[in-house]
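Recall the central idea of this unit: under ordinary conditions, the amino acid sequence of a chain determines the structure it adopts. In this exercise we apply that idea directly, starting from the sequence alone.
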Amino acid sequence: MAGKLWQGRFREGTSKLVESFTASIRFDKRLYRYDIEGSMAHCKMLSHQGLLSSEEEDVLIQGLGEILREIEHGTFVFEDSQEDVHMAIEQLLIEKVGEVGGKLHAGRSRNDQVAVDIRLFLRDEIQGTDEDVKNLQSSLVAQAKANLGVVMPGFTHLQHAQPVLYSHHLMAYYEMLRRDRQRLSDCLGRVDVSPLGSAALAGTSLPIDSRLTADLLNFPALSRNSIDAVSDRDFIIEFISAAALIMMHLSRMCEELILWCSAEFNYIELSEGFCTGSSIMPQKKNPDVPELIRGKSGRVYGHLLSLLAMMKGLPLAYNRDLQEDKEPLFDTVDTVRQSLRILARLWENVTLNKERLEKMALSGFSLATDIAEYLVTKGMGFRQAHRAVGKMVRFCLEEGKELEEMTLQEFKGFASVIAEDVYTILDLKKSVDSRNSVGGTSLQQVREAITLAEEELSS
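Accordingly, the structure predicted from this sequence is:
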């Protein structure tokens, strides 16, 4: 490659140590398609404004197209000695088409060029991430629908609390992911802004048409301040923040998968295709996929903190520190999308131990609240009812029996209003189905939630 395109002011060449330290080509080459897309739009705008002839436009567009094809076919390979993706492509363009290639950079800077590249990249990745989240939601809904009616223990404090439908539990994750999609959509609005025309920081004196460039790149909005446009990385931080929340939700889901497939819980079995074995213990079937996703959540949190720390002390406008935005962004995108995709497949291959779930749903005095609410219907105040049922539970613990094994006389010893009909509520499925408040775990409410989810996913 020839010398640096910016070397006119310098007498000395750049130190090899500095070249290696400052080069970003090894990771920002990932932006090549967006860099070329942005350059083509800029070229067309320059031609429209009379800053390039139509012949020069044709030559430049053809040259950029050739570069794109060479990169994608592997006939052009980026080298570590090249400074960054922008300079590498421009230098190659000049070598291909001659001095006219040097006209392309009129009216722009690498500062607004890299900003538009990242926005184009992130726009695509947000849309792709949204689709990945949607696919995971679809897997959860399918699993919930296939097992509608299966009862499991509901937990608070990781202690048995009240019985719930397994489908209701899964639909809780659907709601988390629905909020994640809302955040991605909201973030996309702030990503979808064109910074081109801001140049280095002050705009340009050349008669460009920023609106035309934005239209060519399908940006609905233009940046309103050139200084902010080239120094803003809020949109990246916002995306990684949304991604961190996605990973937090996935990590919680994976923690439950890990617990549920243990011998102690034995609620589910994971497909062997999503597990690994031990190098020393031949009996092991390890839930490595959910464990890794649980671990990778911390990786994304680290990327969020690294960008916040990088940005907090930067004066306006552009500073080279901003080069450090790309590796955390790229790794976040890859980590989140891979995690979403593999979890969607994993849920399609979960086998439920229904008998175990329903057996455990009855354990731990899970119907105690049903009795307290039964007493309320008999006219007893809730606190009085709560205290009475608490004493019943203590009695059962001491006697080694369950609530449904108590005699009517034993019940009446704690609350005289209790009648024979108390036994009608000591039924697992009736208990679940009685919780018919909006968003509750009754079969009606969960069926409606699944139907609504299917409508949302198909829209």
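Strands lie at 151-156, 159-165, 193-194, 221-222, 268-270, 350-352.
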